[in-house]
Amino acid sequence: MRISACLLAIALLLPAGGAAAQQGSSDSFWGKELSVYIGSTPGGGYDQYGRLLARHIGRHLPGNPSVVPRNMPAGGGREVMSYLYNVAPKDGTAIAITLRDVGFDPLLNAGAAAKYDALRLTWLGSMNAETSLCVSWATAPFRSLQDTMEHEIIMGSSGPDASDSVHPRLLNQIAGTKFKLVEGYQGSTEVHLAMERGEVQGRCGLGWDSIVSRYKQWLDEKKIVLLVQMALDKHPDLPNVPFVMDLARTERDRQIASLVLGPNKMGRPIFAPPGLAPERVRILREAFAATMRDPQLKADADKMRVPIEWLSGADTEALVKRLYATPPEVIAATRKLLGPS
After folding, report:
1. Number of C-beta neighbours around residue 59 at 10 A
2. In this model, does residue 132 exceed pLDDT 70?
3. Where are the domains of the chain?
4. How much is the mean pLDDT over the chain?
5. pTM to 2 decimals?
6. Does the CA dihedral 215-292-86-66 come out positive or negative?
7. How confident is the model over 225-250, as a mean pLDDT?
8. Where residue 14 falls among pLDDT bands split at 50, 70, 90?
9. pLDDT of residue 162
10. Which are the contacts of 12, defined by CB distance < 8 A and separation ≥ 6?
């Protein structure tokens, strides 16, 4: 009897397991709040991905923290990267998603006054790889990319620094196409209406995931012709659509195309501030990977018609380093192609 009483007293003095043990663990998020900052306005594609991540990642972090999505769209997605780089706590409780091109502003925009260094950010991964397409409207007389090399085709665009304009200029330079741009539309919806009205004959910069999720009727009703796919890797769903990298005629052209299209590979990038402890980086990257594999997230993504083609944190970091290691003369040629921002 005395032995039992002693054992009970000792047990009461020992630290409790479960939640209390997690609370005391240095790598736990117990009792903390994880903020997922989103560098776009509510309702858009990046917002969809950011909120999808926020709904599921908490289950894969030690301590199961509450997760709160916070939109920070200022500066075309640049403000959120600057905030995480310079202001956000460096303890793993702040992560973000922003426009895929933002991290490459210092590289591709000679006049950029970026307040961040993409090479020092903590890259956790990317939720999807983007494949953009140039398409022609069915009533226009263009049934193949070859047709655009023989005859001028009028393409609509929102402005000179949009992918709608950059991709046609790239193709004109490396493949000899004859894309003519009509710029100044307010956005993609206005360009699409212009195609339907016959004001323009097509558009570049249209994501394959957007076509599948939002414009599938165009495919079903054969309202568009897929002219060329723009990405670092050929998409498995598009085996018969010409691939931009096959069109590059020189190694220099391939390097320029890689630099322009590299950000597409990390189409929905997730990152954290620089300077995180290595153990925190490991935990966040493993949690991100586990979330991307999570059947609950996949079911949620399917309902939303949001494709998941994710990259690991290590692969995303390697891609950033690879693009920043582009030879200076290729960077200069690419900046010339992109024009003033």
Report:
1. 15
2. yes
3. 30-129+266-338, 132-262
4. 90
5. 0.83
6. positive
7. 96
8. very low
9. 82
10. none
30-129+266-338 against 132-262: fold identical: yes
Q: Angle CA(184)–CA(189)–CA(192) in degrees, nearest 5?
A: 85
What is the distance between the alpha carbons of residues 281 and 277, in angstroms, rounded to a whole number? 6
How many residues are listed for the chain in this entry?
Answer: 341
Specify the CATH architecture of the domain 132-262: 3-Layer(aba) Sandwich (3.40)
Residue 341 has a pLDDT of 52
User: What is the band of 4 on the pLDDT scale with cuts at 50, 70, 90?
Assistant: very low
Please report which residue ranges of the chain form alpha helices under DSSP H.
Answer: 2-13, 19-24, 45-56, 78-86, 105-108, 145-150, 163-175, 188-197, 208-214, 216-220, 244-247, 251-265, 278-293, 295-304, 313-324, 328-338
Minimum mean pLDDT range among 4-8, 248-252, 296-300: 4-8
CA–CA separation, 65 and 60 (whole Å): 9
Q: Are 108 and 261 in contact (CB under 8 A)?
A: no
What architecture does CATH give domain 30-129+266-338?
A: 3-Layer(aba) Sandwich (3.40)
| 3-state SS, residue 203 | strand
As given in the structure block, the two tokens for residue 61 are: 């972090």
Tell me the C-alpha distance between 63 and 21, whole Å. 10
Contact 73/40 with Cβ under 8 angstroms? yes
Q: Is the pLDDT of residue 206 over 50?
A: yes
